[in-house]
């Protein structure tokens, strides 16, 4: 068992060091949500009124409303970027190095996933600290309860990235991932507007948003920030993680996985 | 017991047959070259030996462990140097080494001791603190070979490890790896360059997915030049392509 954790810590450490070395990635991860928070939210606060809906017990400003969605966005981007780094790693061969180590493949991939989640949690807390500097604060206990929530939501979004990395063929396809995964998931969710707002314009869009796992990740983050348990969102997130990770394991299985497809091209 | 035993191995990419009925045994403590032209199936064979691919055709046994039945035991006996570099350029040599050691469950003092010993074997001891990005191609390769020795494997697999290196670096690496074989390690070295093979080495000639010959280099050539022998063996089939 000790061998398992030795490998896990090494993989997490490597990912964290790589992230810290890539200062531009660190900066981009921070600037992106801050632009949404400080510019977008300021512009839209007058246009979008938010009524009192759970877990909020008073009226809140739009900036406060979108903070959980932006935490989710950080993890969504990070999950996809980890998948990009996996594709990049495969090209560089580091993934091969990982996969030829004598540990079960599911553990190696889970370790890789946890490494990405650790980095995303770091990003979220730095973002929240900067947001607090701009006067956008949350209940103190919420910051603590957020940690286990981010672990679960990060695993789900990371597993989606892992699944995509097992099917993506070229580095350039990250633009495709942006267009077809990140943007639809983000905009078709409760990150920027509550679902009841969506149903006012289209029931179909509302239903799509309600089925989007990212919506449930955002709601799980939102509820935990206000010390409220959201069992439905938790089940959705856990079930989505199980499906994504299971499919990713099939994608990385040597019998019918990525390496085989890649060679055939 | 053979260090690496391959029997009846076959693999296809869709309709294209990459390996067909490949069988050979490597004797412990020998340098065996896997000689084949580009496209012979060398990299596919290496992917099967390292379990990046699996196949239902044939059997691979590493130091007594069947890779299909005991993949982890088999992988723990193999050291691999891939054709493509697998290095973290922004980290030091020592950090690259310790990362790999940890993937094999070796940490702390023991990892440091083994890392230093492995680097010393490849003449790289004084470079432990350097960033990999600052090393030249030859030193990077030597570091990868040293890294592949950390978990004390019984078989060292190298897939065209001298690709892209200058003559001097190439010679140094060939000499270092021959020294490792002389020290008792079983070495399996894929190449298409005959000048990397010494007269005392064993040679497996792979062409179009099949083993054409497996013998000592001297016996294979029978006094002729190895390049000519190799060209003769592979030329007729190539001409027909």
Characterize the structure shown.
The complex is a heterodimer of chains A (265) and B (241). By secondary structure, chain A is an all-alpha fold. Chain A has 12 helices and no strands. Chain A has helices at 2-21, 23-44, 62-92, 94-99, 105-133, 140-165, 174-187, 195-201, 203-211, 213-225, 231-251, 258-264. Chain B is an alpha/beta fold and 241 residues long. Chain B folds into 2 domains: 1-77 and 153-241, P-loop containing nucleotide triphosphate hydrolases (Rossmann fold, 3-Layer(aba) Sandwich); 82-152, no CATH class. Chain B has 8 helices and 10 strands.
Oligomer: heterodimer
CATH architecture label name of the largest domain in chain B:
3-Layer(aba) Sandwich
CATH superfamily of the largest domain in chain B: P-loop containing nucleotide triphosphate hydrolases
Q: Report low-confidence residues of chain A grouped into runs of 5 or more.
A: 257-265
* Number of helices in the DSSP assignment of chain A: 12
Low-confidence stretches of chain B: none
CATH class of the largest domain in chain B: Alpha Beta
Largest interface, and how many residues on either side? A-B, 31 and 35 residues
| Radius of gyration of chain A from CA coordinates | 19 Å
How would you sum up the major sheet of chain B? 6 strands, mixed
Number of β-strand runs of chain B: 10
Q: N- to C-terminal separation of chain A?
A: 39 Å
Using only C-alpha atoms, the radius of gyration of chain B works out to 18 Å
Count of structural domains of chain B: 2
Q: What helical percentage do the residues of chain A reach?
A: over 70%
Q: How many domain units of chain A?
A: 1
Strand content of chain A: under 5%
